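Before the break, one more example. Copy the sequence into your notebook; we will annotate it together after we see the structure.
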Amino acid sequence: MRKIAIPIVLLAAAGGGYWYFEVRAENGSGEALTLYGNVDIRQVDLAFRVSGRIAEMRFEEGDTVRTGDVVAVLDDEPLAHDLAAAEAQLEVAAARRDMMEAGTRPAEIAQARALVEERGATVEYARRAHTRQAELLRRGHVSQQAYDDADEHLDEAIARLDSAQEALALAEEGFRQEDIAMAQAELRAAEAGHAQARRRLDDTVLHAPSDGTILSRVREPGAIVMEGTTAYVLSLDRPVWVRAYVDQPDLGLVHPGMPVWVTTDTTPTSPYPGQIGFISPVAEFTPRTVETEELRTELVYRLRIVVTDPDLGLRQGMPVTVHLEPPSAQVAGG
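Here is what the structure looks like once it is written out:
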């Protein structure tokens, strides 16, 4: 008896599935579920990332542009001067870094050693003079002042020799690691400044980010614009979406990835293929622009339908009809 019950349950489940997808989808009128919505086309405000005076505006409203097309240009002379200054600072920083890393040149060390030898000889001469003055003072042949002068000259010569010896030691040792690290950091800062100046100069040229159509030409040549000020408004060719809504009772009839067909009032017999790309997880009230007053208080779920092969026949805000079956199939079925 148990073996007979299992097929009966499976048969009942299959019948229920058939009723859900075939009968429930008819909306009680013999027609497949139909949704209504509007076309959504993304728009981009094209703006410079730097301030300046507009030199060129190359497109008019309604013109078609391709990705990478130059649509507008700023006067780049001020930023070109900034780049030249940054290049000079970079060269100075690189030369200083190289000097620090290379250390003292052999010729400079030789010069410091020669100075030590010279001042050493001066100390010996001053010491002999000091000895003579001391002997003469003892015999009473010179004044105390003469001896004091010789003593002072000897002290000065010794101090100058000490200074030269310290300079030689520093020359032989080279630059400290702290000085080298500082020079390297200064070079990195100069490289960053140079890259920024180059980027700002490049930003005087405004490119189209995607294929599209110019909707608005907002500025004209000669105008002074701040960074971020819109110069053009671009309508993108891709992607083209349809924003539609489904009633809560019909929510189970749609799912992401489901193929659909979109028609317009102009071309009802030439549907655009598409698929459901997104179903909102949150219910909302029916928008006033979509349904009648009786349905405005009903809860619906928003759908985003991606049109796979759009053309210029689909325009921003255009009302469209979304079919879960091809329109031809619906006609044939009727």
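DSSP finds six helices and twelve strands in the chain. Helices lie at 2-23, 77-102, 106-139, 144-173, 177-202, 327-333. Try to locate both features in your own notes.
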